[in-house]
Here is the input.
Amino acid sequence: MIYIKETSPQKNITAIEVDGILDDESIPILKRVCEHHLASGKSVALNLQGIIHITREGRMYLQQIQSDILITHLPDFVKIDNS
Here is the structure.
């Protein structure tokens, strides 16, 4: 299960806080939220402090989006390549 909270601290930035588990079921939900804000021309800051578990697919998704989205508060147990 995933919980997503969206806020707009500035006009052109959307902050997204994610809590829970990032897996095959939750990736499409997070992807839709991020793509919606990017399509509207906003920058996205993704706060992952509340992630309690992430699957291999979740790590792969984060690797794919890290060039388009600012990822913050990545838990120590989550490792993604910076390539």
Remarks:
- The chain is about 30% helix and 40% strand.
